[in-house]
Amino acid sequence: MVVRGSIFAILLFCVATAWGQQVASEPHVGYLYPAGGQQGSVVQITVGGQFLRGAVEVHISGQGVRGSIIKYMPLLRNINTDQRKLLLARLKELRDKRLAELNQGQKTEDGGQKTEDGKNDGRETKDERRVKSDESQTTPEVTLPEHPLLYDLENKSLRELAHIASLLFFPREKLQMNRQISEFVLIEVAIDPNAAPGDRELRLRTATGLTNPMVFQVGPLPEVRELEPNNRQATPERGTGVSRASRPRSEGGTPSAQRGQDGRDTRDALATEKPFEPPVVLNGQIMPGDVDRFRIRASRGQKLVMEVHARSLIPYLADAVPGWFQATLALYNAEGKEVAYADDYRFNPDPVLFYEIPQDGEYELEICDSIYRGREDFVYRIAVSEQPFITRMFPLGGREGAETIASIAGWNLPRNRLTLDTRPGGDCLRRTAFHQGKRFSNSVPYAVDTLPDCNEVETNNGARNAQQIDLPRIVNGRINRPGDVDVFRFQGRAGDKVAVEVYARRLNSPLDSLL
After folding, report:
1. Residue 279: which of 45, 443, 38 has the closest Cα?
2. What is the DSSP letter of 324?
3. How many other CB atoms sit within 10 Å of the CB of residue 442?
4. Is the pTM of this model over 0.85?
């Protein structure tokens, strides 16, 4: 009997262990970068996660969006000395080539483009080829490490090359290794021009099953990705056109590896880049201690809405403390003065800034984590535009089958009325948005139910003036000024059990109600 019990215990332990290993090896996606794309575009996405080897398919919900696998890349533990030398040499070669392309120099006899010091870009001399040949005979073959940043390196711009060097060789803070986001899959997502805007679910399929879903946003606005360095020290000084980071090292400048072969700092060329003009979606990742800045050119009278998507993309990070990305957003004018700031939007943790531009000029938009944490999965999207944005709607719903027209208010709304869909058969909680052509507002929730309803009638601020209602009833009301109290009277009988429930915050109202 004892032997049978021991055998049973051993078998149970083996099954539990095998089940635990199976669960532990389930494919998992930690982030998408960028986490969206414009209608009519083809976007290359980095998928960071764990147990993603053997990914074969991309599944995206809805119509008009298709994905395909480009390449799997395993955990990059370290760049050894030989790879580092090779990568630095390759980056320098491509950087010199890009600088030469920017020059107005004359072409050489063999058709190569001349740099300012007269060297050919991209064309090896016989001496150079012989040195490389000799080196190849004495040293083993070295290949570049596999990393999403290094994919298609030959076609990177000067700005992208500086971005790669900044992240791989000169990080401001040491990154913490996290196995949950240590593997990469490069995918390509094609978005049809008429694909419906909004959130989709994106998953990968591997040999062991489907991953968890991640949010992928489709929108009408053009999109760009951040390119480091774009922190405060890397932005152009006011009135100089030269970045603070382009000063000598003793004054807080960049390492010598960022400089071209002629002693020039490549950031002098980068500092002349044009600022972004709305409408645009800014995509980025916040790394440890990171503060990202974007230069925006705006015109007087523009009513800009700057809406962050961060927590809405990845609501919870299991191993972060606290377990989420808390974004803050600030806008600075041409003199470097902060003119607007937000760390949330009402009870939504993702901030939204509203700002009417007082004068033409360049502004800087800054985003960071509230306590300066960061990692690859601190992904954000900032929509900067004059797109419509609904801040108020009344009523917050209607009776099923009844025509319901809500009044709306907010920013950049060409009209103040919106028809709500109350057709039978749908969900009790629904969503709507204002749209006109390619202009789409934020999505707002509303309720549809079967009970008769009525509107609050002022003044009903006390027992004497209480508004008489019959049960059952839904009342649409507003607390429209500080100190407002709404009172309602109904007929009750002994033994009646009355349930009274407020729908406010779940319908995007800022009201913190008390009954």
Report:
1. 38
2. S
3. 20
4. no
